[in-house]
Specification:
Order of helices and strands: EEEEE
Number of strands: 5
Structural class: mainly beta
Strand order of the largest sheet: 2-1-5-4-3
Number of helices: 0
Helix content: under 10%
Shape: globular
Distance between the termini: 29 Å
Length: about 70
């Protein structure tokens, strides 16, 4: 598990996420209220509770196909 920080995107999504990945990915997508929220790694890190976490910036949203 890797912990990341997200910036931007829909209100209520949350800022800190634990994702199931072996290494920090370049892109990350999460389903939220019927849409996929797309994020890209910025290369920046922030200190959260004593840990340096990778920052991901919101890029766009797409509808989830049924």
């Amino acid at each position: 598990m890797i912990t990341i920080v997200v910036e931007g995107g829909p209100e209520g999504l949350g800022r800190v996420w634990e994702i199931d990945a072996p290494v920090v990915p370049e892109r990350w997508v999460v389903a939220f209220y019927g849409r996929h929220q797309h994020y890209e790694r910025t290369g920046a890190t922030v200190l959260v509770e004593g840990r340096q976490l990778s920052v991901f910036q919101f890029t766009y949203s797409t509808a989830i196909a049924e």
